[in-house]
Specification:
The complex is a heterodimer of chains A (about 120) and B (about 110).
Chain A: E1 3-7, E2 10-12, E3 18-25, E4 34-39, E5 45-51, E6 58-60, E7 68-73, E8 78-83, E9 92-99, E10 107-110, E11 114-118
Parallel strand pairs in A: 2-11
Antiparallel strand pairs in A: 1-3, 3-8, 4-5, 4-9, 5-6, 7-8, 9-10, 9-11
Chain B: E1 4-7, E2 10-13, E3 19-25, E4 33-38, E5 45-49, E6 53-54, E7 62-67, E8 70-75, E9 85-90, E10 98-99, E11 103-107
Parallel strand pairs in B: 2-11
Antiparallel strand pairs in B: 1-3, 3-8, 4-5, 4-9, 5-6, 7-8, 9-10, 9-11
C-alpha cells in the first residue's frame, strides 16, 4: 500500500532554515510528480510546491518562491523541502502528497504531516 | 489568482439525509476541480477529480458535478462517517492551484 512518511518538522526561529523529508513506499516513486501542501493550525489547505517525476521541473506558490526549494532522490524514494528565511506565517502542518496522475495537479495520497512552528 | 468560495460554511444535517455542498470559482476553471474530505486529526482524502470522477475506493453516494465556475458535491444519503470538513481545489492555472476555505458538515 502507498505510504508517505514526513519528518524534519520542529520549532525554529524566524529567519532560520529547516529541511523536511518524505519517505515514499508502496508505489514506483519515480513515476509520479510529488507535492507539498500545508495547513496552518485551524486553517485551510495551501499548495506549496511540486516537482516533476524526474526532478527536472519545479514550481512554487508565490508565498514561498525564492525561499523554499524542492528536490527528490528517486534512488532512495525520498522527497525533500528546503525551507529558508522562515517566517511566522510559514507555521503549519506540512503534507507530502502524490500527484494523482503524472502531472494532474490533484493529490491522491497524503502523508500524516510534519509540524513546523516558526517562533522566537 | 483564482479564488474558490465554498458555501455554506457549515451544514447541519442528519444521517440518511442528502448533502449538497457548493464551490464557486472567481473565473472559469473548466472541469479542473477536485473535492477532498478531511476528518479531525487526519490528512485530507481525495474524493472527486475533474469535477465528476470518483477517486479509487470512494463510495457511490459521493458525486460531483459542474463546470466553469459552479460546482457541487452531493452525498446522496449521509453515513455517520461522512461528517467532516470538505474542501474544493482547482488546478486550472496549473502548476499553480488553490483551495476553497472549506465546508464543515456536522451532525444535526
Amino acid at each position: 500500500q502507498v505510504q508517505l512518511v514526513e519528518s524534519g518538522g520542529g520549532v525554529v526561529q524566524p529567519g532560520r532554515s529547516l529541511r523536511l523529508s518524505c519517505a515514499a513506499s508502496g508505489f514506483t516513486f519515480s513515476d509520479y510528480a510529488m507535492h507539498w501542501v500545508r495547513q496552518a493550525p485551524g486553517k485551510g489547505l495551501e499548495w506549496v510546491a511540486v516537482i516533476s517525476y524526474d526532478g527536472t521541473n519545479e514550481y512554487f506558490a508565490d508565498s514561498v518562491k525564492g525561499r523554499f526549494t524542492i528536490s527528490r532522490d528517486n534512488s532512495k524514494n525520498t522527497l525533500h523541502l528546503q525551507m529558508n528565511s522562515l517566517r511566522p506565517e510559514d507555521t503549519a502542518l506540512y503534507y507530502c502528497t502524490r500527484d494523482s496522475s503524472g502531472w494532474s495537479g490533484f493529490f491522491d495520497y497524503w502523508g500524516q504531516g510534519t509540524l513546523v512552528t516558526v517562533s522566537s | 489568482e483564482i479564488v474558490l468560495t465554498q458555501s455554506p460554511a457549515t451544514l447541519s444535517l442528519s444521517p440518511g439525509e442528502r448533502a449538497t455542498l457548493s464551490c464557486r470559482a472567481s473565473q472559469s476553471v473548466s472541469i479542473y476541480l477536485a473535492w477532498y474530505q478531511q476528518k479531525p486529526g487526519q490528512a485530507p482524502r481525495l474524493l472527486i477529480y475533474n469535477a465528476s470522477n470518483r477517486a479509487a475506493g470512494i463510495p457511490a453516494r459521493f458525486s460531483g458535478s459542474g463546470s466553469g465556475t459552479d460546482f457541487t458535491l452531493t452525498i446522496s444519503s449521509l453515513e455517520p462517517e461522512d461528517f467532516a470538513v470538505y474542501y474544493c481545489q482547482q488546478r486550472s492555472n496549473w502548476p499553480s492551484g488553490s483551495f476553497g476555505q472549506g465546508t464543515k458538515l456536522e451532525i444535526k
